[in-house]
Amino acid sequence: MKIVNTIAAFALASTLALAGCSSANQSASSDSTTTDKATNQSNNTQSSSKEQTNATNVKAGVSKMLTTAEELKQAINAGDEEKVKETGPKLEEIWKTFEDGVKPRYPELYEKLEKSLNPEVAGSQVSPLDKQTLGKLNDQLIQTLHELEKKAN
User: Region Disordered: start and end of each range (predicted)?
Assistant: First the structure.
């Protein structure tokens, strides 16, 4: 009889212990799930915020670059070599501030911009100026910037 009572007591204690571990695991699992959800929401918010910042940077960069390209166009048409040499590299500087926001979102426009921008910046540093080629490159750049401006809005 003592053995039966001992076994019964042991079985009862084991059952209670296992039940306690099970609820602790569920609680830990629940806490983990809650933490994962909060982390995912935080990551989504940060991602969304980053995308908005990139979009804002692209819009501001395009606007600034269009203004500079228009200044360059006036200098090319006037034959003002000094102003062209000063303004041409500014386009590259402005482009560097937002090109990382353009490349993943608008890869075709990124390539188009690079095709006209790089030779234009290089050509703006050459003496004597090739007004016709620079003017053509600048017009292509301005047209591509307007396309990008429409897509970014």
Answer: 24-58
Using alpha carbons, select from 72, 70, 153, 80 the residue that is nearest to residue 120.
72
Residue that has been written with the tokens 């670059």 in this structure = 65
Alpha helix (H) residue ranges in the chain = 2-78, 81-102, 107-123, 131-152
Distance of alpha carbon 95 from alpha carbon 82, whole angstroms: 21
Tell me what the mean pLDDT of segment 68-92 comes to: 94
pLDDT tens per residue, range 86-104: 999 999 999 999 999 999 9
Q: Which CATH class is domain 2-152?
A: mainly alpha
Note the pLDDT of residue 1.
65
